[in-house]
Amino acid sequence: MPTSAPAPDDIAHIIQVALAPAFLLTALATLLNVFSTRLGRVADKVDLAAIGLRSAGPEEARRLSAQLTFLRRRSFVLDAAVLLASAGGIMTVIAVLTLFVGVLREATTTSVLFTCFGIALVCTAGAIAAFIGEIVLAGHGIRDEVDRQQDHAVAKQTR
């Protein structure tokens, strides 16, 4: 326990240093919002495919089954993105708490602070990478659907 209160300049410096993690938390919250919106879209598509399966013929049932498999993969990638972003947020919060507790105990503050903030940055990068993977999967699914619709249109024209 320190014998005297920290100087106002020291407190101002701690608050300034804590702002960088606050910006990271804002970015993570935005990412989590995007991830949840995309997961909602996946869920809507799963619902539509499941309803369509009830009255589908064999060919349509195969297509809908493949779509459901694809949507399942997308949901797993989104799960990874959400978990990584959440872990990054938790590590950021621990880093900020460590910074403030560090005023009381200087010995281990630096290593814990760098470790937590480092893990937060790695988790954030992983969440972004998982999001990129999900976007690629979504684009692939859209292209497959466009190709299927074009094939269907060509088949109708040749009849």
Automatic annotation (TrEMBL):
Please give the Pfam families that the UniProt record associates with this protein.
DUF2721 (PF11026)
Full protein name = DUF2721 domain-containing protein
Species name for this entry? Methylobacterium brachythecii
**Source species, domain of life:** Bacteria
The UniProt keyword set, sorted, is: Membrane, Transmembrane, Transmembrane helix
Q: Where are the transmembrane segments?
A: 12-35, 76-100, 112-138
